[in-house]
Amino acid sequence: MTVQQHIDPALPRTAAMPSARQPIADDKDMLRAARDLTKDIAEARAGIYWPDMLGSALVGYGALAGAILTQSLPLAIALGLVSALALYRALLFIHEISHLHRDALPGFRMAWNALVGVPMLTPSFMYEGVHTLHHKRTQYGTVEDPEYLPLALMKPWTLPLFVLIALLAPVALLFRFAVLVPLGAILPPVRQLVWQRFSSLSINPEFRRRPPEGELRPRVFWQELGGSLWAITLVASIFVLGWRPLLIALAVVSLTAVLNQLRTLVAHLWENDGEAMTVTAQYLDSVNVPPPGMIAEIWAPVGLRYHALHHLLPSMPYHSLPEAHRRLAAQLGDGSTFHGANHPGMASLVLRIAKSTMRPHG
């Protein structure tokens, strides 16, 4: 979950694109192994999804309530951090929802929206029908990919801007649902603008969202209605409860947004110059941060530490990705293409991308 982000800001494309590079051919042995070795673990397990999502939300909201109610500043900060991490994990289930088969986990999407998506003003429609474009064979890394920018080929100042602008995400979402959605109900041009430009968790400023179709249309209506009513309630709460509760909540959500933006920054190497890529090239432009390190489970939870593997197996449930990675690593070996997407951690990835922005691209 571009949440997956918790919202990914649009940045201008300031890159000087490099000359064409040698294309990477598909590693058919790796693709075949990914398909054949994981068939028995491809089913989403309700006994894992539900407790994980519900527990994360419960801890997140409980810690947020404690941060608001306590008069101790150190305790408020500690509880705010716990809340941000727990709600971050709960929020990233939006990524799973965008890939779940329509018949898998009955009621999960509705429950997640009611408990997490709408209260955090990031309902699932903002990712559904958008994130799957990022996985299209001919669209990944191109101008038609809503979740791709060639960050490694852009100017150095774009990286801190990319991360820090996420601080504004909660205020932007509050304004969208409290002001723009009601205004759009009256003025169709506003509605069209909001839908095209401000209704998806995308980072590509050239992306324009198409009108919703099929089953998504009624979901958009109800989720936007719920989000709008909740946003208006939050704004109105300052007249009853004062500014403190809302400001603390916004600070917590800002922290989740920045953390997600950092995760997004290192989810790919961002080295594609806009050309269509093979599946193997897309895999190698994506990132796995496998064990033994455990800190990645905090900043890339719900399976997102295996982001490159996810691009090989987009429908694989998050709880099966560790086992899928173990099987493929054992089968293909350390010197294989599969090993080429493994990286040690966030710091080394940020440094790699930052160094790339400082090189001349021409």
Automatic annotation (TrEMBL):
InterPro entries: FA_desaturase_dom, Fatty_acid_desaturase. The chain crosses the membrane at residues 48-69, 75-94, 161-187, 229-259. One of its GO terms (molecular function) is oxidoreductase activity, acting on paired donors, with oxidation of a pair of donors resulting in the reduction of molecular oxygen to two molecules of water. It holds the Pfam family FA_desaturase. Keywords: Membrane, Transmembrane, Transmembrane helix. Signal peptide: none annotated. One of its GO terms (biological process) is lipid biosynthetic process. Residues 74-335 form the Fatty acid desaturase domain. GO terms for cellular component: membrane. This is Fatty acid desaturase.
